[in-house]
Structures are given as C-alpha cells and as structure tokens.
Amino acid sequence: MIASLALGQKADRPRTCFVIGPIGDPYAAHGSSEREAYEHHLGIFEQVIAPACKRYGITAVRGDGIPHAGDINEQICRHVIECDLVIADVSGGNPNVMYELGLRHITGKPTIHIGEAGLLPFDIASIRTIRYQRARSHLTGARKEIESALEVGLRDGFELLTPARVLRGLQTIEGPSSAAESGDTEDEDSPGLLDDFVAIEVGLDEMTADMEAITKTIETIGALTEQTNIEMLDLTQANAPASARLAAVARYAQSIGAPAGELNAVAGDFAERMATLDSGVRAALGLIEVTPLDERGEEAEEFLGQLMALAESAQEGMAQLGSFGTSAGGMVVVSRHLRKPVKDISAAVKQMTSAITCMGEWAGKARALAHSTTE
Fold first, then answer.
1. Phi and psi at residue 348, to the nearest 5°
2. What is the pLDDT of residue 52?
3. In this predicted structure, which of 144-148, 231-235, 267-271, 317-321 has the lowest mean pLDDT?
4. Are the beta carbons of 246 and 335 closer than 8 angstroms?
C-alpha cells in the first residue's frame, strides 16, 4: 500500500501530497459519463483524501488544482516525481493514471493506492490498496484507513515497493536482502533495466504470436465464408428450396464454429497480455523518457521499435477483423445456427478493439521518444 526507498526507513515528514486519478470533465453535459466521473472523483478528493492529509499537516492537490501557469503535462510530471507523497486512485486502470503511477514507482517515494471496490486493475491488484465504495459510510472508512496508513508510515517508516514490481508485474520483493544487511548496496538478484526490458519483450513477443494466430484464423473463416457464398449463389440460381439453403447455412455455421471459438480465445489472451503488461510498458516508457539520450542504450531503442511494429501489425489485423465482424453481425438473422459463431466473432472484435486502443497509446509515446533521439 505504501512505497518508499527502504523498508522501515523513516523519510522526512511529508508536507505535500499529489493526488493522481481520473479527473473527468467539469464542463461536460450534466448526466454524461465525463461529468459524473468529475463529480465522483472530486468528492473522493474533498471527502476522503484531503481531510486525511490535512490531519497530518500535509497539503493535497490534484492536477486540476495546480495554481501556477505553465505546461500542465510538465507540471503533473514534476508533481508526480517531486512531491513528498502521492495518493493514487487506480479505479478502472485509467491509462494516464497508470502511466503517472509508473513514474512515481520509479522514484521509490511514498505512494498510497486507493480504488473503488470491483474496479481494481488486474496487473496491480496484488498490491495492497485501500478500497472504497460510494456509500458515505464507506468513504468515511476509507478516510480513516488513509489516516492510519499515514500514521504508521510517519511513525515506523514507509514500506518498500520496488519499481521492478511495477515494470514486470511480479510479486513484491520482501524487505532488504542479506546482501544489503551485510553492507552491499544492491541485491544481486534484483533486476536491472535490461532485465525489465527483456521481461516485457517476452510478453510483447507472445502478443505478436497471438496476432499472427488471429490473422490466420480470420483468413480461415474468410475462405469458408467465400466458399459458402458461392454455394448459396448456386442454390439461389437453381431455385433450390429453402430447406437446401438452410442446410448449407448449417454446414457453414458448423465449419466456422471451431475457428470462431479459437478467434475469441486468442483475442482474449491478447487482451489479457496487454492488460498485464500495460502499467509495466508505461512505466518503462516513463523511465526511458527521464533517462538522458546518451544513456539509453540500444536496448531502449529496440524496445521502442518493438512497440511501434507491434501496434502497426495489430492495426492491420484489426482492420480485417473489424470488417469481418461488421458483416458477421448481419448473419444472425439468417439462421439460429449462426448465433454462436457470430457471438464469438463479435466478442473477439470487442476485446481486440479495447486492447489495440491502448496499444496505440504505447506506440504514440514510443514514436515521440524515438523521434527525440533523431532531433
């Protein structure tokens, strides 16, 4: 729940707290999701976070409450990195929140996770998080838990949560190693930057393999569809009875049943890998961004290239899948036999759409960082 430089090490008393979390849009129409998000998270800040911090003399501020003029993105990054304490609302795994959280974890400074029950991101769900529900009584409980966490941290020191835990989605490394106790400054088994990149690249390689499998499955279903279209055209020209055409549709549905199920399963694997890697990739991108250009090394540049190449491949596959999914949607009115395979195809389209949107954000950031090295 709380991350710091060393287990049991007392930090200077925090005076500033930056709150990262979904913001929403205060100018959106009443009743819109963006306006509701703004009202909800402003309430969490005002009723839970700010009062808990105030009890210990800590000033809390959100990104939309930074008083100074300037580039908002730069200001947020500075607050994330420099503030004594960060409280992060990870509800729903908002991409901007996860990116900022990755930057914060790299610093090793105290961080408290909070999140709405049932909406915790899969890849950081194992990290202790103060959970809240929207009922007033639960918000009061969450405020008290934050106060308790601050009290313990200020008294006993803040627990260690290594940045590698975020970069690789592994379990938290417990406490100082025997090597550290003997005087060594670094655990011999702790991963370095190259180790982290390799671990993430393995996951990206698996996603590339998933994308290839998806493409082949789409081609298989496409070929079966074309074959059935020819058969149906022949039956129509021959004035075949409806029973003959229904039999052809049933055969078609049976032939694409297995490929459609496989497509949905692989798309699910692809989306799950993306969700698992998301915070790690964003944290790695954040680490590259704050690393001087002459210190990045070839591994970082290869990593950026891999992100861009995977996103391009996924976009091409998604174009095929999206087109096929649109045409498949009209098939369900033809026969009940088609409902199950079409359902699988539609589910695959939905999972891939969400995953590739996130992947596009990876690639955009990678492209910007790669471009900065050529300027």
1. -65, -40
2. 93
3. 317-321
4. yes
The 59-62 sheet, strands edge to edge: 59-62, 16-20, 85-89, 111-116, 130-132
Q: If one looks up domain 193-372 in CATH, what number appears?
A: 1.20.1050.20
pTM for this entry? 0.47
In angstroms, the CA 258 to CA 278 distance is 30
Residue 188: CB atoms within 10 Å: 9
Altogether, the residues listed in the chain come to a count of: 375
Query: Under the phi-then-psi rule, with left for phi > 0, alpha for psi from -120 to 50, and beta for the rest, what region is 10?
Result: beta
User: 16-181: which CATH topology?
Assistant: Rossmann fold (3.40.50)
pLDDT tens for each residue of 108-122: 788 888 888 766 665
| 160 DSSP β-pair partners | 4
pLDDT tens-digit readout, 207-239 = 888 888 888 888 888 888 888 889 989 998 999
- Ranges in the chain annotated CATH 1.20.1050.20: 193-372
Distance CA 225, CA 108 (A): 55
CA 210/CA 247 separation, integer angstroms: 33
> For the chain, where do the domains classified as CATH 3.40.50.450 start and end?
16-181
Share of the chain above pLDDT 70, in %: 75
pLDDT digits (tens, 9 = 90+) for 57-86: 999 999 888 877 667 778 888 888 888 899
Mean pLDDT along residues 311-334: 66
Environment class of residue 21 by beta-carbon count within 10 Å: exposed (0-12), middle (13-18) or buried (19+)? buried
DSSP secondary structure, 307-354, as one string: HHHHHHHHHHHHHHHHHHHHHHHGGGGT-GGGHHHHHHHHHHHHHHHH
Let me know: does 79 contact 53? Beta carbons within 8 Å. no
User: Do the Cβ atoms of 250 and 235 come closer than 8 Å?
Assistant: no
- Rounded to 5 degrees, φ, ψ at 358 are -65, -40
